[in-house]
Amino acid sequence: MFEQLQALDNISINFSPESLHIVNLILALVMYGVALGIRPQTFKNVLLFPKSAFVGLFAQAIALPAITFLLVVLLNNWITPMIAMGMILVASCPGGNMSNFMSQLSRGNTELSISLTAIGTVITPILTPANFFLWGGLYINFVNNQAGEAIWLRIPFLDTFKLVLLLLGIPLLLGILTVKYLPKIAKKIKKPLQNLSVALFLILIIVAFSNNLDIFWSPIFIFIFILVLIHNSAVLGTGYGLATLFKLPPKDRRALTIETGIQNSGLGLVLLFNLMNRGVLTDPIGGMLIVVAWWGIWHIISGLLISFYWSRRAAK
């Protein structure tokens, strides 16, 4: 089984510069759509829910990558380093843009969810590369101290920072300016654009792996499926557990659980494509790609399942 997992690293997904431009454009549309929901009132809502907002940010920025690091350490004998790094990369990404819809569907605190998404998105250019650099570096040191095995994967903080700033900073700024100066247009295009971006990301994942679709039907994928299921469950449980520990209101617990468990793994996928294309990542990283790609599909399924369950139960 371990040898089969290692074989995943040799999966080759090549993008021409033109194709990569399309991928980056899709991500820009996603972030622009998220920015259309960022208004001054969004940040004022944090003042209305200071405790819930603090717990939510702590869950996303600190607890999520820390729990993921502990999980990959515990599973070290059953997973490859690249699969572990894929899990850490997902945990370093911000909340997904579907979390607001899911919070509303689950009868949670939608205002809190929007606030957490907005703040998380704004700090992503710093938080994502910092968490990936920190926890990824700790994991590499851990592996290199085990049984003489050594991996030399470079964690490019500055390259990742500049890339995230470019891919997210410009569309975020354009979105905020649209809301400020063209509020009617922003309100009109916000929902269709967000729905379109989700559909495009799903298509992106399918197209990117079209030459390797046999992997998703192979026995080894069952292991990846279970691994992502465990990781996603741990993440959702972390959000709900912290919200319960700090005795947040039921609606806030629902919003915080979903906000923590729905990660923008599409950002992680685009980062990997760009870093490979630029020659920054030269190691075989197929394991990372598979984990991040399946996360992009599974977190939507798990989030909708939880949302539908809670939608039938009023939050007291």
Structure description:
The mean pLDDT is 80. It is globular and about 50 Å long. Helix 2 packs antiparallel against helix 9 and helix 4 (50-74) runs antiparallel to helix 5. The protein is built from 13 helices and no strands. The chain has a single domain (2-311), classed as Na+/H+ antiporter like fold. It has 316 residues and is an all-alpha fold. The longest helix has 35 residues, at 110-144.
Compose a concise summary of this entry.
The chain has 316 residues and is mainly alpha-helical.
Could you outline the blueprint of secondary structure elements for this entry?
Layout (H helix, E strand, L loop, with lengths): L1 H6 L9 H19 L4 H9 L1 H25 L6 H12 L6 H7 L4 H35 L12 H25 L1 H26 L10 H27 L4 H12 L3 H13 L8 H26 L5
Helix pairs in contact: 2-8, 2-9, 2-12, 3-7, 4-5, 4-7, 4-10, 4-11, 5-7, 5-13, 6-7, 6-11, 6-13, 7-8, 7-11, 8-9, 10-11, 10-13, 12-13
Features:
single chain; 316 residues; mainly alpha; Na+/H+ antiporter like fold; 13 helices; 77% helix; globular
Note the main sheet: none
Spatial extent as radius of gyration: 19 Å
The ordered string of helix (H) and strand (E) elements is HHHHHHHHHHHHH
Q: Tell me which oligomeric state these chains represent.
A: single chain
Helical stretch tally: 13
- Average residue-wise pLDDT: 80
Low-confidence stretches: none
Q: How many domain modules? A: 1
Helix content estimate: over 70%
Structural class: mainly alpha
Total beta strands: 0
Q: Give the percentage of residues in beta strands.
A: under 5%
Please identify the top-level CATH class: Mainly Alpha
CATH architecture: Up-down Bundle
Shape: globular
Looking at CATH, which topology would you report? Na+/H+ antiporter like fold
Distance between the termini: 47 Å
